[in-house]
Amino acid sequence: MYKIDSKKLLRLPLYHGSPYLVEKPILLPKQRSHDFGNGFYLTSDFNQAEKWSRIVAKRNNMTTSYVATFMISKKLLDELAIKSFDYASQEWLDFIKLNRKEVINKNQWDIIIGPVADGRTSYIIDQYNSNRLTVKQALKLLKPQLLSDQLVFKTDMAIGALQYQGFKKIEGGKE
User: Fold this and answer.
1) For residue 12, what pLDDT is reported?
2) At the N or C end, where does the chain have fewer CB atoms within 10 A?
3) Sheet of 162-171, strand order
4) How far apart, in Å, are the Cα atoms of 43 and each of 71, 76, 116, 126?
5) What is the rounded CA–CA span in Å between residue 172 and residue 21?
6) CA proximity to 147, closest of 119, 117, 175
7) pLDDT digits (tens, 9 = 90+) for 104-120
8) What is the C-alpha separation between 46 and 68, in angstroms, rounded?
9) Is 114 helix (H, G, I), strand (E, B) or coil?
10) Alpha-carbon distance values, 80 to 12, 110, 119, 173 (Å)
């Protein structure tokens, strides 16, 4: 089973994929449902960030996108409230379910870390949310060993802990 080591993860470079170059992240108003609610999303997987940047660029009829690299200030890390899901579990599924229904207290944590649910995974979670799949069935179909990680920075204090390191320009908006 894929397990996220959140302490190690927070010491690694983190990547944000977007059709826009993001050097100084800000919290934007909610635009659509996300696994962990509104916030600034990153991953430790460069390829996942590049994939996200291409998908969003294509959705916006753009051909260029960017992957920005950030590190977290170790000085501020101890001051942040962090919720971590080390692997895909019933708690993780239920947390996503509540976020998609907007039931979660959005100011409870500064950073939330866990497996990413995208593509086919979103369909499975929707089936689980509709009670068409049991927890056991959903977790088996999710194949957690194939999931990447995601981190969402939900507060200004958390975003203030990010240190911009640079970017890579991605040409071509095709997946």
Assistant:
1) 87
2) C
3) 14-18, 64-72, 162-171
4) 11, 19, 9, 22
5) 15
6) 117
7) 656 689 999 998 865 56
8) 9
9) strand
10) 17, 6, 30, 36
